[in-house]
Amino acid sequence: MEKLRLPRDKWRDIIFCSVVVFVVIADQITKALIRAYIPPGGVLYDFGFFRIDHVQNTGASFGLFGGHSLVIVIISIIGLLVILFLVIFFRSRWSFLQSNWVIVAMALVTGGAIGNNLIDRLRQGHVTDFLDFKIWPAFNIADMCIVVGVILLAYRLIFYSGLTKSKK
Fold it and tell me: Does some domain include residue 2?
């Protein structure tokens, strides 16, 4: 049997799309389970420092800009278009964007933004959050993916760009 041999750029596209799809599916499944089994404001488990509860967030991160879902959706669409534009059109010009770490980071941010800001806000008018450490506002899988993606991207920008050649 002959091995599948795709150009490196095609593998990056597959990685990007796979991560985006995985994040969106994981985020939507967990939120659907929370909505099905916990009433809004209810708590499923309380472990003292951490609990799983059902919070409906009409704002952006940390509940900021509550009730402005349309503005948040428009900003999210613009951000997604910028990320897709960079991934599709600029990766051949900027070697930094050819790194697999950067592709995964951008895919995490893209998947989180699609799952969090677009699907939930367009369908329900709010985002379902359920992971609550009590000292931090409640969040969800998409929020985690966005934060991890931004941290990975910042790390790559700080330590692997500029005078040093990007490692792949």
Answer: no
What is the mean pLDDT of each successive set of 10 residues along the chain, which is 168 residues long?
Answer: 64 90 96 94 90 85 65 82 80 72 91 84 87 89 92 86 52
Number of domains in the chain: 1
Domain span at 129: 8-160
Q: What is the pLDDT of residue 83?
A: 83
Q: Is residue 1 part of a domain?
A: no
Provide DSSP, the chain.
-PPP---HHHHHHHHHHHHHHHHHHHHHHHHHHHHHHS-TT-EEEE-SS-EEEEEEE-SSGGGTTTT-HHHHHHHHHHHHHHHHHIIIIITTT-GGGG-HHHHHHHHHHHHHHIIIIIIIHHHHSSEEEEEE-SSS--B-HHHHHHHHHHHHHHHHHHHHSTTSPPP-
Residue 156 lies in a domain: yes
Domain-located, residue 67: yes
Beta bridge partners of 57: 127
Predicted pLDDT at 6 = 56
pTM of the model: 0.81
Active-site residue list: 129, 143
